[in-house]
Every structure is written in C-alpha cells, then in structure tokens.
Amino acid sequence: MNDQLEGAYDAFHQDLAQRSNSARAFDNFIGGRATPSTGDRRIEVVNPARKSAFASVPDSTDADVDAAVRAAAAQLDGAWGALPGAERGRLILRLADLVERDKELIGRMDAISIGRPVVETQILDLPNALDTMRYFAGWADKITGTAIPTGGYFGRPTHSYTRREPVGVVGAIVPWNTPFMITMWKLAPALAAGCTIVLKPAEETPLSALHLAALATEAGFPDGVINVVTGRGETAGAALVRHPLVAKITFTGGPEAGRAIGRSAADSFKRLSLELGGKSPQIVFPDADLDGAIRGLAMGIFFNQGEVCAAGSRVLVHRSIADKVAAALAGAASGVRLGDPLDPEAQMGALASRAQFDRVAGYIDIAKAEQAELLAGGTVDDSHGLFVRPTVFRGRNDMRIAQEEIFGPVVVVIPFDDEEDALRIANASSYGLAAVVWTSDVARSHRMAARLKAGSVWVNGWAAIDARLPWGGVKQSGAGRENGASALDAYTEIKTVTIVL
C-alpha cells in the first residue's frame, strides 16, 4: 500500500507542477489570468495527514483585492452585463462539464489539503457541486419580474412592473471543510443572477478555487467575471468586506468572524448572507430502526472528521435505549480506520490544521474535566499527522462539549424522557442550523419538525442536502439562505418601474 500511496502522491504533485506557473507556487487569478501578488508574503498549503507543505499561494494585499474587485466591477457594464440569461446559463453548464472532466484532480486538491479521505470528496462534494451548477444554470433565463396593477396616478392609468437585477460584485468567503461544494453554493446562483465574483478561499484550501477560475476562462467566461484572491481572513478577507465596490458578502464560517464581517459591512450597507455553524442534535426514539440510526449517528459526527457545520454532535436518546445506543455508537467509533487521504481503506483522516487539532484536543480535555463519561476514543496523535480518534462521551446538555461547536469527531450522548424533554434539550442551544429525528412514527416526525428551532430538519437520515432545498440557520447559526430558488433573492435587487400612460 505504501508504494501505491507514494505513486498516487507523485502523480498528484506532477499534475500540480504542470498546472501552476512556478512548480507548485500558485498566483492569484484576476481578470482572466494568473496574477502575481503585489506583496512577497506567501502561505504554505499543508497536507495535515503528513504535516508537509506541498504548494504555496499569495498572502494577498489590499492592492490585490482592489484589483480583483475592479476587474469584477468592470464586467457588470461590460461583456458579462450584456449577456442574456440563456447565455449565462450555457456558460455555467460549460463550466460544469469542465469541472466534471477534472473532478478527480479537484477532489484530490481538497482532500489532501484538508486531510480527509478522497472518497468523501468524490461521493459528496463534487456530485453536489455539479448538481448545484446545473440546477442554477437552468434558472439563469427564468429570473423575472412581475406586472402589478395599481389604481393609477392622479386619474391616469399606469403600467407598473418589477425587474430583478444583479446585486453587483459579490465577495464570497469560503471555509476549508467542504470548500468546492460551498464555493458552488455561492457562485452558481450569483452567476445565474448576473453578478460577478471575487472569491476568497480559506488559506488551508485555496487550490480548487484557483483551478475553478482557470476553468471559467477555458469555458469562455469574460475576463474578470470570476476572480480569486488567496490570503488570510483578517487581511484579504477584511479588505474584501470593506471594499466600497463590493455590494454583497456571502460568508460561511464561525460566529465570531460573522460578527466582525457584519460590523464592517454595516459601514457601507452591504447585503449579507451568513452561515455560521451549528451544534445539531440527533434525536433517537425507541421506535426508530436502531441499526440504521446507529449508522446515521456515526456518519453524522465522524464524516469529514466531524469538521462539518451540520455535524450531529449532540445525540439525544430516549432513556429506555440510551445505554444500548451509547454502547453501539462507541463500538462504531472504535471501529473507524484512520488513514491517509489517498488510502482507499481509510475511513477518517486527519484534522485540517494544527490550530484545529489543538482545539479538538482541548475540548476532549475539557469534557474529561467536566466529568463527562468517556465511552470511546479520547486520544490524539500528532507524531506523523494530525489525527484524533473518534470520541464518544456521555454527559449533560449544560456541558461545554454540548454547547460549543468543537468541529471535530467528538460527540456527547444525552438521555431524554419524552418528546417535550427532547425538544427542550434540543432547542437549548445558541445554534440552530440542523436537526435529525430518528423515528418510525410519521406523526411524531412532523410534530418534532414543527417545533425544532433549526433551519433544516432531517428525519431518518443525516445531511439530506440538495441544490433545490434552501440551506441556512436560525439564531447564532446565521442569516439568509443558500440553494433553492430562494438563494436567487440573495443575489438580486428588485427595481420598480411605473409608466404613466
């Protein structure tokens, strides 16, 4: 297997070197071409499963961000702004075909940067991204206004109607956990609406975004419609948020960064969409298919090393089956095989960065100090890569591990007595992104869904996401929705026109 792995890495590194302008050293992508930064600082892209750097990107300056925004703004009144919706849709479809052609490379770019098994990017991230692109391509020529009859104007008849116009330049700030998929949740509806884009990927996972921008040029997008500037959130991201020509910011990340973005964006009244994470409950009733529920519970917290905004990190179980479910979940955790991203036998990879590894290890220590009962895992290993064993605790909802987003493979099992108790515990959180209900009682599933305070409720399955379904949270989990027809509202402004006849 080692020879196989090393051969796969050699092929990947050769591919990167061929595609970059200087062996594994990438530039920004501005105005349709790779563009060196105006500064000389760079950021290494690291494989956390091996703790080794394999590429680098610019640590972009304010001047880099300004150049990207101005390139995007110029296209609003340029070739892109003149394109009819049907042609925008055809370009998005052409881009989707190129992404599908290069999906193995894109999947490896992200998997190796994050440390997760590449199979996960191939079975979830890339299929969802492609579906999102093709779904919104179909919307590009269907964004219409409405004729509205009125009572006239001082006795004269009027013809009144609305137009839905692109909001303008969109600054898209993307996280590192499922970067390509979330990039498409932002770019596809924005492009369909006629907006132009400046994308700031996470510093840990910039390569797939840069490759996407190059594919857009290959697809025939006018230069400057899609721009990518790499760098840190507090520098390049902050410059993008405060730029006066940016009309809207769409951000996925944590609440602290979301608050900072909101304060900065308020100065120029920018439109905002914020998805800020969660502490999602998975609620198991005695009438559930327990074998299926255990598999779903494990997937809900251990998929992508638990580095998922909708991770089901609180498992609420009816007291009559709590011991059985906790033991089964601990058994599932103990059976997970950790390994290299390119190892086909790996079921879980490394955590994405040293900071994230230290954060998760710290929460495991906090849980032990709070006297949560450790049922499985609880160990970390950074001797070769940044690995944390899948960890299961039994505890209470008032513990920090039940209230704070850990963003790692750590779950707490909490018993409940009845529906009312389950709802009380589930809703006792500052977050409200998603929730899962495991039950065979259809009436109960509807009762629970109506009263759970979450943007999405899934019954008998975790992460039933789809390009056609709105996605977003309530409370501290953010504001606004991505995906579905409602996403188009985030990228259009309504103009009212009245003609006095």
Automatic annotation (TrEMBL):
Keywords, alphabetical: Oxidoreductase
GO MF, any single term: oxidoreductase activity, acting on the aldehyde or oxo group of donors, NAD or NADP as acceptor
Designated name of the protein: Betaine-aldehyde dehydrogenase
Gene3D superfamilies, alphabetized: Aldehyde Dehydrogenase, Chain A, domain 1 (3.40.605.10), Aldehyde Dehydrogenase, Chain A, domain 2 (3.40.309.10)
Catalytic residue positions: 275
Domain Aldehyde dehydrogenase as annotated: residue spans: 38-497
Tree of life domain: Bacteria
Family indicated by similarity: Belongs to the aldehyde dehydrogenase family.
